[in-house]
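Amino Acid Chain and Its Fold in Token Form
===========================================
What this section holds: a protein sequence and its matching fold, both as plain text.
Structure line: whole-number tokens from a learned vocabulary of local backbone shapes, matched to residues.
Purpose: to set a sequence beside its fold so the mapping can be learned.
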Amino acid sequence: MDPQTQQNAAENSRDPIPTSVVVDIHSLTSEDTDLKLLRETAGSESCCIVRIPHSLARINPIAYEPKIVSIGPYHHGKEHLKMAQQHKRRFLKFLVAKMQEKGTNPQELINAVSTLEGDIRGSYSEDLGLESEELVEMMVLDGCFILTLFLVVSGKVVYTNLDDPIFRMPWILPSIRADLLLLENQVPYVLLQALFETSNLVTSSCLNELAFEFFDSSSWTTHYKNQKPKKLHFRGIKFKPRMNTDSILDIRFRNGVLHIPPVVMDDFTATVFLNCVVFEQLYADSSNHITSYVAFMACLINEESDAAFLSERRILENYFGTEEEVSRFYKSIGKDVALDLERSYLAKVFEGVNEYSSKGFHVHCAEFVHTHFDSPWTFASSFAALLLLMFAALQVFFAAYSYFKPPKDK
């Protein structure tokens, strides 16, 4: 094939160039009615409830996910949060009854929210895709749920259902508090203010005061500090297995010695611990002994080296797996446990260990010993330095002595 023929064949094989392109410019500028995500007002000052950017959410997704209750539209309808919807309706029923006792028409709650529909929609960065009735129903349920929590926890309103799990089970209320602080799990403050004023149940306090009281950290479950056993050991606390006891719960602290009964850590023990902790968390009238014990051990066993330290002292007998698996078990269970430290049978032990390891001459002595005499090499170097210091001191002494009291000539 000659060059001219090849060139003609190549040109014929190319895609034909369209003679005209028909695109309506107005169709590009019109909104897509089937898909509305980011609102035009998402950057305005009134928009205060936004989605977490995916680039941040993927770092730790569970940090932004509610565990008990969904508030607002972003997490509404998720399977693990549906049970809380029953509690919302029960709280609304209670609030309506209280309003009727005061002669207030509860229908005013609906009216108050309806007038705020535009402000509510403008508070969210995304288009909600909800009809007016759906939005008003959601806001009334969620807003009245929060308002009832504020009123009951502050003591402004007496809640008559003494068996309500939200107030009976020790782990639920702290979890709800945490859920209400999540950025995506919110309703506009203007909604809460409108519901508070419409309910007319409290006139002696403002909504801000009730909110601050509800979220006051001093009223939350007491937190316990993680104390590594090696760190405690370096601060003068000794660890000894407590042999003469019938229960692994019988932990004692006396005169700087922590007596812990030996525990066999295996699959059976782990299963018993997990089920007992759940039982104590769910039943308000039960003791919290197992929860206290597990929380105490979780404070001690936070790393692989912690499990090894307790194993060396015959406190932990490990058939569960590697020492890393033991530490991971206690770390995971201790993280999700709600413990009222004041009700714990180990409260005095927690207090004694923290106080003993934080101050006192024994702390400085123990730190000095472990810093300079913890291993044969540090002991040898410290001992050599001490000998050199002694020889230098003796040399200075004899030099000064010979100067002030020179030998007498015979």
